[in-house]
Amino acid sequence: MTLPPCPGPPTFSVDWQSLHDQYAWIRAMQGVPQNPLHHAEGDVWVHTRLVCEALSQLPEFRALPEADRSTAFWAALLHDVSKPACTREEGGSLTARGHSTKGELEARCILFQLGATMAQREHVARLVQVHQLPYFAIDKQRPAHSVIKISQVARCDLLALLCEADIRGRECADKQRLLDNVELFRELCREQGCFDAPFAFASAQSRFEYFRRDDRDPHYAAHDSSKLRVTLMCGLPGSGKDTWLANTDPSLPVISLDAIRRELGTQHGKREGEVITHAKERARKMLRDQTPFVWNATNLTRKTRRQLIDLFADYDAHIRVVYCEAPWNLLQKRNRERAAPVPEQVLSAMLQRWSVPDLTEAHSLVLNVAD
Question: Fewer CB in 10 Å around end: N or C, the chain?
């Protein structure tokens, strides 16, 4: 199975029948109802087609390089991919609350298994995650913070295109108000200097502190008082974390959750609280001693990483996240060859909560992606 082809010149047409026949996640959108107050045009699949058609007609979309057109088109095709799972009735009306957050995870899995490049897959997944934000960004308590954060993980100009198409591909009473809000979003991004590129921080320390503290000026040049560097490994089992360490920093002490499990005579998924407690005790000792070290585990969710990063930052550590990735078929092969392979159902479940780290989380990010 291949990636959905992007509309291109001269007609910018889409073969909807082929897409429908090829992808189960597209067929799943059919018949999923939407709240007529916001989507009087029909079900989720009707809306998705209208959004993609609207996008393909926008002059700004047609002027994009092919790679950027593909990113925007795939984001449009996947922006409501989780509505089938999230749609429910609450208080007598239909809602799909949470579909953007879940959609990021689902879009990532779909594109990963279809073989998209990591860079393009992550761009699409993040666009899906934030595809509703331009509708209300200007009304948020810290609107500049919102667009600056988005700019670190996705192109705000492509997000604005996606949102404009999302509005033009629906029937609702407040259509013009939403289009006006997208224009305000564009202006806000331009004012902050992050419309078509990431906001440029004075330093890695400035960026790190900005996303950890609510009162920071984004232009503030923060002083770097770090006393040691801690490396946080991240990646699915079989992605190459141990190999990267062996080839890059073999002399660093390593806190390995797998090694602690072996010490305790337990398996992955068992006695996890005890495993983490042992690991954190060892980390605190090295942090107190200002000894650089590596924390080696999957660390697949942002929440898990944030808890560890907060611990390391409390000791004035410079935090480097190293993310490792390998194609799905190679991951499965490597996992089967491990001395203690992760059960297949557990590995598949990990994909459903897998979030790739980004530069809003740490001082530095190293990407190690196998072919």
Answer: C
